[in-house]
Design goal:
alpha/beta; 12 strands; 31% helix; seven-stranded mixed β-sheet
Length: 268
Amino acid sequence: MKIFISADIEGCAGLSFTDETHKNESVYQRYAEEMTNEVVAVCEAAHAAGATAIVVKDGHGDASNINPLAMPEYVTLIRGKSGHPYNMMFGLDETFDGVFFLGYHAAAGNPEFAISHTSTGNSQYIRLNGRYMSEFMLNTYTASSLGIPVLFLSGDEAVCRDARELAPHISTAEIKRGVGGATFCTPQKLAIERLCEAAKTAVENRRKSSIPIVDLPEEFIYEVTYKDWKKAYQMSFYPGMEQVDRFTNRLKAKCWTEVITAHSFVVY
């Protein structure tokens, strides 16, 4: 069984503030180490359950957070930014049996996690067909476009709940929950236990039966509401975009590739 893991940092154990996600801050390194530890733990659990090959995409920032020297021998780590619209899913193709999302977080505009966002901090929120779009939703539809089911997600309580609504079969590991600017953090040991149990369950479920992919809508209405009206104005010139109001742009598309390509430009 071949598994693809898209890994982020904000949903890893203990992390609660923006400074902890930035390389130039003194507190960053401990959370990069935690991200590495969680990736290794999930890989080991998935491998023990039957995953024979695992590809990990470092999906945070410049994609050089995970220690490549700590990876097990059956793991390929993809570091750096290719420039491909798949972004956090770069390296995924039809040969994979399932997708894991590790360290994910609530969508932009969600008040249940202090540093909720979608891809960057430029948007107040993003809607896809009227629903607030998280990186989980974005990347799940990319997996679906290739016919691959999503099997596992770890992160804050809000993104785990949203994941189960979109993909009821998914195994989740809740690591934290937010209230306003505060974060209730699960102890590291317990977080690792939850990760391993959910990863094991995800692989076992995939081995036992066919897991459905999340259905792709027939049409996509992608709307970005920016924090800065000047950014909204600038990005309204992206081909196919129309300006809805001073802060919001809209794109209508039939093809998922059009949406992810637009997203890779207009929120960065």
